[in-house]
Amino acid sequence: MEIKTTRKCKVCKNLIVLETDKFVPHNKDDYYHQDCFIEMMNDKNKQLSQDEILEIIKKDREKSHDRIKMLIDKNHLFVFIVKKYELTFKPKYLFLRFEQIFNGSYKNITESVSPSDLLDMWLRKENELDRINQWKIGKGEPLDGLNRLWYDVAILLSKASSYKKWKMSQVINDRTKENIIEENKSKIDYMKIYNGNKERTNIENILEEI
Ligand SMILES: [Zn+2]
Fold first, then answer.
1. 34 C-alpha to ligand 1 centroid (Å)
2. How far is the CA of 31 from the centre of ligand 1 (A)?
3. Looking at residue 210, what is its pLDDT?
4. Virtual CA dihedral for 11, 13, 18, 19, nearest 10 degrees?
5. Close Cβ partners of 70 (under 8 Å, ≥ 6 residues apart)
6. Which helix (H) or strand (E) holds 49?
7. 30: which strand partners?
8. Distance 63 CA to ligand 1 centre (A)
9. pLDDT tier, 1 (very low <50, low <70, confident <90, very high otherwise)
10. d(CA 36, ligand 1 centre) in Å
11. pLDDT at 4 over 60
12. Ligand 1 is a single-atom ion; what residues have CB below 5 A from it?
């Protein structure tokens, strides 16, 4: 399932796909295609050099990196939920409750769960959740969309801390792999430095001899 998170470009008014397009987030909630932004800056501030404009873009991107990642992650999660649970209406409390899950204030949870972790868990457990739902239907206790959603959320949240531990172990595995690659790289670099030094020493010796 490919989900696009879009915002309107303030210059050309066309949509920007945050996942794939080159764009500049400027100020709190303004978005520009990169090309549109450069053009605008060139028009507005004739004294700015291209390097200065690129520097502004770099800073804007760094500043809003976390905020935009959150925006995209939330959108992916909500689009998935609305489709999966066939929600035709989305009560306000739905988003409020999810915000509480993300910031850790939701009832009975001891730690926050980010939108991307929650979606990842959901996809990994989707078959299991479907089986539980079938079992409930078989028992004559079917749940409608929203009720099933909260039922599944409760199951996922009960598994959140073991999921986090598992994820952490995956990160450590990846780091170990990276370290091995880094170690091999640095061995090669040491050789380069060593050879480089040797050459320099030779030249220094020659110079001294002269
Ligand atoms: Zn544009």
1. 7
2. 8
3. 40
4. -120
5. 115
6. none
7. 26
8. 20
9. low
10. 5
11. yes
12. 9, 11-12, 33, 36
